Amino acid sequence: MQMQHRVRLVALLFISWIAIASIGLYLFGQQYYGLFDQTGVWQRQTSAAFAIERLGIAPANDKQVVHVTQTGCVCNRLAAEHRDLFTHSYQITANRQFQFSAEQLQAAGFSLPAAPAVLIFEQGQLIYAGPYATGPLCSVDDSLIAPILRNTLQLPGLWLNGEVKACRCLVTPSMK
User: Fold this and answer.
1) Which of 4, 14, 66, 125 is 20 to 30 Å apart from 76, CA to CA?
2) Cβ–Cβ under 8 Å, residues 142 and 85
3) What are the C-alpha distances in Å from 32 to residues 9, 37, 135, 164?
4) Using CA atoms, how far apart are residues 95 and 60, in angstroms rounded to an integer?
């Protein structure tokens, strides 16, 4: 009988360890996954046009892209996979791609609810702002921007895409 109790105790400890480890991994993995604009910041923001000149960049006739990262965000690694596709797959030359931090964007007058993000400008006017892709791993297969960059999707106006779930780090608004 003594041996049977030991086996049950070991089995109970093992099952408890598996359950606690699984819950911990799930919560850790999900802490950076959620709605891109979970507070509705963009819903309250006016959809006034944001021109690329506000970032100190001269407008071009073609599409221009601003990649936005946040220091220390674990999701930056996933966004890097998307950035690697811009030159070859989307035909956006390096001189039409720019790198900014979320803080630099705020200083220029554009608030992001989260990062990493991408801003796409057409003829100097913002047409898309939001995550690169949807899903917990922001896979290039779940890209939101590929059709826009390949000109297979024409947006009727500005799309502040805050309603999708993606890997993101929330941006704290600066106090001015």
Assistant:
1) 125
2) no
3) 36, 13, 11, 13
4) 10
Distance from C-alpha of 43 to C-alpha of 162, rounded to nearest angstrom:
9
Nearest alpha carbon to residue 162 among 44, 38, 30: 38
Q: Which residues of the chain have pLDDT under 50?
A: 175-176
Contact by Cβ (8 Å): 166, 131: yes
**pLDDT at position 104:** 92
Separate counts of helices (H) and strands (E) for the chain: 5, 9
Is 0.90 topped by the overall pTM?
Answer: no
Quick one: pLDDT at residue 25? 59
Domain extents in the chain: 1-31, 33-170
- Say if CB 83 and CB 77 are below 8 A apart: no
SS3 of residue 172 by DSSP: coil
Given a contact cutoff of 8 angstroms between Cβ atoms, the answer to whether 63 and 92 are in contact is: yes
Concatenating the DSSP letter of every residue in 69-123 gives: E-TT-TTHHHHHHHHTTTTTTS---GGGEEEEEHHHHHHTT---SEESEEEEEET
Architecture category of domain 33-170 in CATH: 3-Layer(aba) Sandwich (3.40)
Which amino acid type is present at position 65?
V
Task: List pLDDT tens digits, range 61-94.
Answer: 989 999 999 888 988 888 888 888 888 888 899 9
